[in-house]
Design goal:
Serum Albumin, Chain A, Domain 1, alpha+beta, 20 helices, single chain, disordered N terminus, 23 strands, 7-stranded antiparallel sheet, globular
């Protein structure tokens, strides 16, 4: 109990290691800080998060990474709009006030529960590689992989943005409110200005050198040559003009229109120029894909399949854990051993087999086959950490051999969870990849660096890598927007930013609610302990660090890090209960 109380009140975490500096988190101001203009009930929601209490509502709820974005979505829901309507409003505000994480220059995955049909539907708005891209896009003349930020910064890393098309498709399918009205809150904030939050100000300060590559981004984030400051009012007239055009012309202004032409010109003329073309934008399509659902203790955990690895990996981890008693809780060493090694097994399969299934065969059925998973779970029958972990050999219809991937996926991204009064549920994870993406700015928004989610190596020892760059292909992602079902009804919407650690963050919340009986705010506030490739990452300045000696004795390598998740969760039952990650500035709010 002492651990739980400590966890709930952990509002501040330290900055991440140097590799994660582009998305490090800073201490948030006490109270509502940069959001003092919020209505009293929304301010109370922020206070509830800081006190470790879930927000409770009876009709609708939205949870997202910035109170200004939550307010935009809440106003739509209060006016009778659907979760789809609110999702549009929330995303375009996030692209303004949290531009380093997501926006119109990026991509997203949506998991949607349709209350009218009872169906779980997933839409893929992931970016695509340009048609002119080759498997050697991120290699030097000798065929060696580029250093990460040598690949990221500039036009080379920019994929075809998918978010504008996804928002339009979401509204076409499930929206009921007038399109332009959903963009109006963000447009007004862009014209009149918004208060710079502590988090945005600190992240800009930490990334000045890379942002300086773009004169447009530099002028916006560093007016008068100095980084923007927390509490300052920041206007974005270029973004207002973009939203006005988006409201009047729809997504065509990006995919064949002026904004699209401006994106292409910026990418092609940037330092470290890219190969994105008008054709790439013209042929872009949002894709509906089959939801991936995996059983766990009487629930169905449903999410996005390839090109996302999220649902498959989360499903594999949970399947490996289901045969074990986890009730001892998050501070129990054996529980953490089981969770850590189950994740390592899933990541080994992820690294070899998961990629864009439109381009390479992916054995999803074999990876989630109960017999295969039982064999993997049996490897956990030990009191010590697994000495070695490698990909398994699932049954599948293609005699393909893949090499293990080496792609780097650093933390950034944002997650939105929404439930509307009709019972529709939206879980959408949205990103421009690394913090501030490619650092290129067009029309008041940042362009993604999503192509660096591909493997920089195309082959290893003569064997091809499934997640290599190919023209038109979508890079593998760890984003894991999730809807948990029970008896055919949704009981939870959950997701997080965090690069490849997203999978561990989402898994822990599901286990925390189902196995440990925590409420959603307790679950998202829990200190993190995440294993992917062998090293057990423990969240610094939290009780997770107390696990270090025991895990080391069990045979794990251990590192202490700042683990800046951004979990936003809504539990759905007799009422709605929302939780927002205390490591970031977001809130859950409903009525």
């Amino acid at each position: 109990m002492r651990f739980l109380l400590s966890a709930i009140f952990v509002v501040l975490v330290g900055t991440a290691q140097a590799q994660q500096a582009a998305d490090a988190v800073e201490p948030e101001a006490a109270g509502i800080g940069a959001f003092e203009s919020l209505p009293a009930d929304m301010a109370a929601a922020l206070d509830a998060k800081e006190a470790g209490r879930p927000v409770v509502a009876s009709d609708w709820m939205v949870a997202a990474a910035n109170p200004l974005a939550v307010k935009a979505g809440a106003d739509v829901l209060a006016a009778g709009g659907t979760a789809a309507d609110a999702l549009v409003a929330v995303q375009v505000v996030l692209g303004l006030v949290e531009p380093q994480s997501s926006g119109l220059g990026g991509g997203a995955f949506l998991v949607w529960y349709d209350a009218a049909t009872g169906d779980v539907i997933t839409l893929d708005g992931r970016e695509t590689a340009p048609l002119a891209a080759t498997p050697r896009l991120f290699q030097d003349p000798e065929g060696e992989p580029l250093k990460f930020f040598d690949a990221v910064v500039g036009g080379r890393s920019v994929g075809t943005p998918g978010t504008p098309a996804l928002l339009a498709e979401i509204h076409r399918r499930w929206g009921t409110q007038e399109w332009g009205s959903l963009l109006e809150p963000a447009l007004t904030l862009a014209q009149d200005g918004f208060t710079v939050s502590p988090r945005l100000a600190k992240l800009v300060e930490e990334d000045l050198e890379r942002l300086a590559i773009s004169p447009v981004a530099s002028a916006y984030f560093m007016p008068d040559g100095e980084a923007i400051k927390a509490g300052a009012t920041l206007k974005n007239p270029a973004y207002a003009a973009t939203l006005k055009a988006f409201a009047e012309q729809g997504a065509t202004v990006f995919y064949g229109g002026k904004i699209g032409h401006d994106i292409v010109a910026t990418v092609q003329n940037a330092e470290n120029a890219g190969v994105l073309s008008d054709v790439d934008l013209a042929i872009y399509q949002v894709k509906e894909r089959e939801a991936i659902c995996a059983p766990y203790r009487g629930h169905e955990v449903c999410g996005m399949g390839p090109p996302s690895s999220g649902a498959v990996a989360v499903g594999q981890i949970l399947a490996a854990l289901e045969g074990y008693d986890l009730s001892a809780g998050p501070q129990d060493l054996n529980v953490r051993r089981l969770m850590g090694d189950a994740a390592r097994l899933a990541f080994a399969d992820r690294g070899r087999y998961l990629a864009d299934s439109d381009y390479v065969p992916v054995p999803v059925t074999g990876l989630l086959d109960p017999a295969y998973l039982a064999g993997r779970a049996a490897l956990l029958d030990s009191e010590m950490a697994l000495e070695e972990v490698s990909a398994g050999e699932p049954t599948w219809d293609h005699a393909m051999i893949w090499a293990d991937d080496e792609s780097i996926e650093l933390p950034s991204t944002s997650h939105i969870s929404i439930v509307d009064s009709m019972g529709n549920v939206a879980s959408m994870t949205t990103t421009i990849e690394n913090g501030f993406g490619s650092r290129l700015m067009v029309g008041g928004f940042l362009l993604n660096n999503e192509l660096t989610d591909f493997s920089f190596r195309s082959h290893k020892d003569g064997i091809p890598v499934a997640n290599r760059v190919e023209p038109g292909k979508r890079p593998r992602s760890s984003m894991a927007p999730t809807i948990v079902m029970k008896d055919g009804k949704p009981v939870m919407a959950v997701g997080s930013p965090g690069g490849s650690r997203i999978i561990g963050y989402v898994t822990q919340v599901i286990v925390a609610v189902i196995d440990w009986g925590l409420d959603v705010q307790q679950a998202v506030s829990l200190p993190h302990a995440v294993n992917r490739f062998g090293t057990y990452d423990l969240e610094q300045d939290t009780p997770s660090v107390e696990l270090s000696d025991g895990l080391t004795t069990m045979g794990f390598e251990v590192a202490t890090r700042g683990l800046t998740s951004g979990l936003h969760v809504i539990a759905i039952g007799d009422d709605l209960r929302g939780g927002a990650d205390p490591r970031r500035e977001g809130i859950a709010f409903g009525r």
